[in-house]
């Protein structure tokens, strides 16, 4: 099945609100648990690329109170909701939200101990600049934890995956999910991007019936 792009930025209030209303609690918790396992319990500076409404940075900071997070997104409405979540959790001193393009990061080389990203890659028409930027801003021994959907082999498989998410999602939310699956990469495409970007020591694997993960532990 060919990749079918969706808009790179979900920046309407309706899209941001619908996205935030979807119950990703289990997926987000699993992501945060595995992300913190890639790092140290010591002080660290972490970049979350494509933070959306910042639910994952909140979870990460609750598990690693000595970390500082820079959470970026290109969608102003997502960040508006993210600000509410950060304030409600009392983590304003730990999480800095910034309106930034992950393909053109304004940060110096080698400043982050860990770079994490959940469900950003499928939004990017050309993900290579993003992977190249990760390599640039991450410390040489820094950690990487990226997870996203992978594109099903055919439409029948895609329909089955969409059906499996349950009736708690409305038609619009199911459409968002279907569009994301159609825009996602295959595992082979991810492998090639990692190689082309020059990222080394990264383990790439299928982590669920719909997700791939790229992981490298942060070593001091």
Relevant terms:
220 residues; alpha/beta; 7-stranded mixed beta sheet; 8 helices; 7 strands
Description:
The chain has 220 residues and is of the alpha/beta class. It has helices spanning 13-21, 25-37, 55-63, 76-89, 128-137, 155-163, 171-183, 187-197; strands spanning 44-49, 67-73, 95-99, 112-118, 138-149, 203-206, 211-216. It has a 7-stranded mixed β-sheet with strand order 3-2-1-4-5-7-6, sandwiched between helices. Helix 3 links the parallel strand 1 and strand 2 (67-73). Helix 2 (25-37) packs across helix 3 (55-63) and helix 5 (128-137) packs across helix 8 (187-197). The radius of gyration is 16 Å and the shape is globular.
Topology:
Blueprint: H1 13-21, H2 25-37, E1 44-49, H3 55-63, E2 67-73, H4 76-89, E3 95-99, E4 112-118, H5 128-137, E5 138-149, H6 155-163, H7 171-183, H8 187-197, E6 203-206, E7 211-216
Parallel strand pairs: 1-2, 1-4, 2-3, 4-5
Antiparallel strand pairs: 5-7, 6-7
Helix pairs in contact: 2-3, 5-8, 6-7
Question: Which strand-content bin applies to the residues?
Answer: 15-25%
Order of helices and strands: HHEHEHEEHEHHHEE
Number of E-state strands: 7
What is the topology, as strand order, of the major beta sheet?
3-2-1-4-5-7-6
Shape: globular
Number of helices: 8
Low-confidence residue ranges: none
- Helix- and strand-based class? alpha/beta
Radius of gyration: 16 Å
Give the proportion of residues in helices.
Answer: 40-55%
Q: pLDDT average, as an integer?
A: 92
Spatial separation of the terminal alpha carbons: 42 Å
Characterize the largest beta sheet: strand count, sense, and whether it forms a barrel.
7 strands, mixed
